[in-house]
Write a structure and sequence with these properties.
The protein is of the alpha/beta class and 381 residues long. It contains 19 helices and 5 strands. It has a 5-stranded parallel β-sheet. The radius of gyration is 20 Å and the shape is globular.
């Protein structure tokens, strides 16, 4: 059985530090641990791995707070007009962020930085820091032993990491709901205050930009859940949402969540995966609709998957123009090079079927009829 006090004590012992900063993280941690013990049906081996992961997250948080305590001036540095890319999962958010962060003027939150944040990398060392190489070695091992996960969603150590990993040290992060069957945590997560997560998110980026600056550009499919909190912390954020046929979205997302949960449990219910996915997607759509009703249609810039995949650089040019910026020739060349180096299916083909999760294409279209009409989404793309 996992125990919050033991996890916290172990993190303190491992790090030699004791200041976690904002104590609000404890509520989410306690709810998550209770759900993991009573609902997730973790294997014995997985329980140990999950505990170690939580301890590592807590250690990273302690190290971040310790570094910021020694460098308080970093918290005065602005983060201006950060770009946030989001949308229902599997709608092209990864392609969009990879295009954007190919622009050398932009700064992304790299995967390796999410797990070993402090101290920040030296100037120009984002891809030479020993922590980068260590994380890449882990990912290369994963590609060897669980290649089906990379076929669904591949990341390298310098890939733009989803913001949920900047939020996970607050234990207000969708990543936990994706990895494990934790319905009580899921219910809490969908109704909690997200501002502590984004305040911590900003602290991380203020630390990370100390030696490597740029136009911060983030990706997280789940941001529609918390746009009010996001813009409370980042009031000048540039918001970009991608859209795709929801039948393909649901099938692909369920397939990924099911495969990830199978890494931790021998008893994963595909119908439960579908249920939590639909519930979460409904909340995402309702909240982005409410946000636009409050702040105006132009408050979020929308991109269709069909347009992004058929003319990716053309769509980037339109996005830059929308925010009053110019797509430089240097950025254009870098984006094309990224596309050439990463053809679709590079790490294998992702196969998925709605029927495996107790769903049908017609049923999904009926469920998301308003969403399809509102955003003019093409079906079967």
């Amino acid at each position: 059985m996992l125990n919050s006090e033991h996890l916290i004590t172990t993190a303190i012992e491992q790090s030699g530090l004791s200041d976690f900063g904002d104590p609000s993280f404890r509520e989410g941690l306690d709810i998550l641990v209770a759900a993991l013990n009573s609902e997730a049906k973790l294997t014995e081996a997985a329980s140990g791995r999950v505990g170690a992961s939580i301890i590592a997250t807590l250690v990273n948080r302690l190290q971040v707070e310790d570094y910021l305590k020694s460098h308080p001036e970093l918290l005065d540095a602005p983060i201006e007009k950060p770009t946030f890319v989001f949308g229902l999962p599997r709608t092209g958010t990864t392609l969009a962020i990879n295009l954007l962060t190919a622009d050398p003027a932009r700064r992304s939150f790299m995967r390796w930085e999410a797990f070993s944040t402090a101290p920040p990398a030296a100037a120009g060392a984002l891809r030479s820091d020993p922590r980068y190489h260590a994380e890449q070695a882990k990912l290369d091992m994963s590609l060897k032993y669980v290649p089906h996960i990379s076929a669904m969603h591949h990341e390298d150590a310098d890939s733009s990491c989803e913001c949920q990993f900047a939020m996970s040290p607050t234990f207000i992060a969708q990543v936990y709901d994706s990895q494990y069957h934790v319905p009580s945590y899921s219910d809490w997560f969908l109704n909690t205050d997200y501002r502590p997560a984004f305040r911590y998110h900003k602290r991380l980026m203020q630390l990370l930009q100390q030696n490597n600056k740029g136009h911060w550009t983030f990706k997280n499919p789940w941001h529609p859940l918390y746009l009010d909190a996001l813009t409370d912390v980042y009031p000048d954020a540039q918001l970009v949402m991608t859209h795709r046929d929801p039948a393909n979205v649901v099938a692909s997302a369920c397939s990924l969540v099911y495969a990830v949960r199978k890494l931790y449990s021998d008893d994963v219910d595909p119908n439960a995966v579908a249920a939590v996915s639909l519930k979460t997607f409904d909340a995402m759509i309702a909240r982005v609709t409410a946000f636009e009703a409050k702040y105006g249609a132009g408050s979020v810039y929308h991109i269709q998957y069909r347009d992004l995949t058929s003319d990716p650089i053309g769509q980037m040019e339109k996005l830059y123009s929308h925010f009053g910026e110019q797509l430089t020739d240097t950025a254009r060349v870098a984006m094309q090079a990224m596309l050439d180096a990463n053809p679709q299916g590079k790490h294998g083909k992702h196969e998925y079927r709605l029927e495996d999760y107790g769903l049908t294409r017609e049923g999904v279209y009926a469920h998301f009829a308003d969403y399809i009409d509102r955003f003019g989404i093409d079906r079967k793309r």
